[in-house]
Amino acid sequence: LFAQILYRKYLYSNNKPIKGYFNAIEAACEEWNIDAVIGFCMPYYIPVTMASTNINALKILIQFDPFTNNQTLPKGRKWEKRRQLESEVINKLDSLFVVDFVYDEMSRLGLGNSNKLISMPFPAIETDADGNFNNLEDFNNKLNCDNKNKIIKFLYTGVFYDIIRNPEFLLKLFEKLPENYEFHFVGGGAWNTVKKFVNKLGKRLVLYGWRSSDEVKNFLREADILVCLNNSITNQMSSKLLEYICTGKPVLNIYKVDDCPSLKYTAKYKNCMDLKEAEITPEMINKIINFVDAHINKLEPLDDIMKNFKENTDFHAANMIEDKLNELLKNRSK
Q1: Which site from 8, 100, 155, 245 is most exposed, i.e. has the minimal number of CB atoms within 10 Å?
Q2: 267-276 per-position pLDDT tens digit
Q3: In 3D, which of 301, 165, 295 has the Cα closest to residue 245?
Q4: What is the pLDDT of residues 4-48, one digit of tens each?
Q5: Can you give the pTM of this predicted structure?
Q6: What gap in Å lies between CA 10 and CA 186, rounded to an integer?
Q7: Do residues 60 and 38 touch, judged by C-beta distance below 8 A?
Q8: How far is CA 318 from CA 39, 93, 109, 123, 312, in A?
Q9: CB 321 within 8 A of CB 95
């Protein structure tokens, strides 16, 4: 049984799960003789409810984002309450699969029973039932003209945030980059920052707003350089970087902190330039221009992508969960 959100109204207050969601899990386990309940968080009321149920089924949780040390949540006394709650939840689970960069922090904070924590590579790449990459399509740029005269499209898809993923440095870069470099933004967020550059960049700043996944694929096909803007925190990372990597296209990876989790992945992707946010200098601008000139017509070999990032697939994550399930069920039957 996958403990998904039944209705948006099923929230919890004072750390007590809503009775309707709680009862639904218990009733389903009894009626269908469920062997294991697998929950996904966030929001955190899902694991809270799972952990509180009185069921014979195994309780397994998959966690992509931090809860206790989530920078988007209040600190102070509430931080300690979250830590206590998370420890209580973990101790009631049979296993907790956590993406690697969150696992490192949870281990450092001493959250719950460490024997129940399992580090899982970030599973952001979709595959078919046989583990073949779904989104390795033909993303060839087909550029046959002088890069100095051609409009070069840099593309960012996703969300900006005012604090943890602010785009001001990125947009300031384009004030200094050549006139034939355009920044295309599909998504939303941090509008107060973005709007400051609408007049400054003019037609070189192209805003599309939110679009469907099929439309985003078309934007990826048309783009020359894909832009990844990382967070100012180390325990959360956008899945966009791995989606970009699967295109084989050049990636400009902008990071804000030295131990940014993205660097672990870009180290295995040659068609990429890592750029640390800092004072914008002529040397920095020339470095970007040189990267564009050297990589704009290049694609990372698909065989290399599949070899280097196979552990970041949903197929690999499913196999990890299946192996753990079989182990737990086998131990239970003894």
Answers
A1: 8
A2: 999 999 999 9
A3: 301
A4: 433 333 333 444 445 667 788 888 888 899 999 988 876 677 788
A5: 0.86
A6: 32
A7: yes
A8: 14, 18, 27, 9, 11
A9: no
